[in-house]
Each structure stands twice: as structure tokens, then as C-alpha cells.
Amino acid sequence: MIVLVLVVAVAVLGAAWWRASSQLRSERALWQERISNIAHDVRSPLLVISGTADVAAVESSDPASREAFTKIVQVSKRLGRMLENHVASAVVSGGRLRREWVPVEELAASALARLDTTIAPERIDIQIESDALAHVDPKLVELVIGNLLEQAARSSPVSERVVFVARRLDHSIVLEVTAPHSPSPGGGARLEELAVCRAIAAAYGGSLELAAEPDRGTTVRVRMPDGEAALAMPSIAEEMS
């Protein structure tokens, strides 16, 4: 019974979100204001559903029930990512982006923690230079990293590792996600999610580029320059103190 209730709850929340967002798109200003309110109202029950199903999956002794609960967790996380992508689109279209110095290591750790449960953390090879600080909105760039990692992992063989590289270059932060043997441009990223990532990079005066190499796979490279107010970049130690 609890499986049915959770499935119905996820379906109702998803339908409500899409209906509300489609109605509000016609009036951008109103949409930007209300989209955040709707996101807040949907995010909390989604977390409750996901958490309840996760606990039930661990405690259940029935294999079929465990599989059903695990599926609910996966669907809830995907719906949550769709929600965050829409919120990001509203923030970017508003033209007023936050900037603060944040270690990319923290952003990558948060993105990894929120990946689909079907993606094993050990499949992601993290290579972050010691001075990799980004002058960005942490939530937006965490979303960029999560989108690219998840889609790269989905489009690559399970036996292959996705590579994430972060480095500083000419007063910019450069993020690279490589999907080995990816069959499609952008590491298999869905067009909508790739468009959100590109819009976020562009909003910071940066870019998103794709590069396919036969022996390496497909790499998505995101570059975001520091803001004009960033006169001095703190050290990693200063930022984490």
C-alpha cells in the first residue's frame, strides 16, 4: 500500500509542477517570482518521499518491494533535478546572478551526493587542481556539474570511468567532463539539460563547448570567468577557514 501511495504522490507532484510551470511561462516576471515559491513547495515533499522510500527499501525483506522503493527514490531524484533545472532557468533569465568564491571540490562533492542512485561514485574520476576556486553562485554551478556527470555516466559503459577535471585558467574556472566511448555529442546529455548548462555558463560571460576524440570520448568543457568585482582570489585555505 505504501508503494502505491508514494508512486501516486510522485506522479501528482510531477504533474502539478509541469502544469504550473507551463502556465507561468507566458508571463516571465510573474513566472520568475512564483517559480521559486513552487519549487520550495515541491522540494520539501519530494525529499520526504525520497527519504521515506529509501528507509523502506533498506528495511524491506521482500525483493520486489525493495526494487519498487528504490525506483521511487530514483524517480524522486530525477524529478528533483528537473525542478532545479527550471529554477536555474528562471534565475538565469532574471539576469541577476550571485557570485562568491567557492572551492570546486565542495561543488563536486555536493553534485556527487545528489547523483542518481544507479550511478556508483567510484565510476567518477575526480581531478581538481589545488587552487580551483570558482567565482559563481554555488547552487547553479553544482547543478552544471551534476547534470554533466549524470548524463556522461548514463551514456558510457558501466565498466568505464567518467572523468571530471577542474582547473584555473586566465582568471577563469574551467570544468571538463569526459564521457568515454560516448555515442552522442555532449556525453549523451539531454538537450534541455545541456541548454541549461550552456545558459548558466553564458550568463557568467563564459562558454560551453563540445569536443569529440576517437580515443578519449566526448568532453564537455565549461569556462566561466571571474566577475569584475573579483579583484583578488583568496586561497583555498582562506576560503575554507
H-E order: HHHEHEEHEEHEEH
Low-confidence stretches: 185-189
Q: Helix/strand/pairing class, anyone?
A: alpha+beta
Shape: globular
The major sheet is characterized as:
5 strands, mixed
End-to-end separation: 49 Å
Index terms:
7 helices; single chain; 7 strands; 241 residues; five-stranded mixed beta sheet; alpha+beta; two-stranded antiparallel sheet
Task: Please provide a written account of the structure.
The chain is 55% helix and 18% strand. Strands 2-4-5-7-6 form a five-stranded mixed beta sheet, with helices on one face. It has a two-stranded antiparallel ribbon with strand order 1-3. The protein contains seven helices and seven strands, in the order H-H-H-E-H-E-E-H-E-E-H-E-E-H. Mean pLDDT is 78; it is low at 185-189.
Summarize the topology.
Blueprint: H1 2-24, H2 28-59, H3 63-94, E1 100-103, H4 104-113, E2 124-128, E3 133-136, H5 138-155, E4 162-168, E5 172-179, H6 191-203, E6 207-213, E7 217-225, H7 236-240
Parallel strand pairs: 2-4
Antiparallel strand pairs: 1-3, 4-5, 5-7, 6-7
Helix pairs in contact: 1-2, 1-3, 2-3, 3-6, 4-5, 5-6
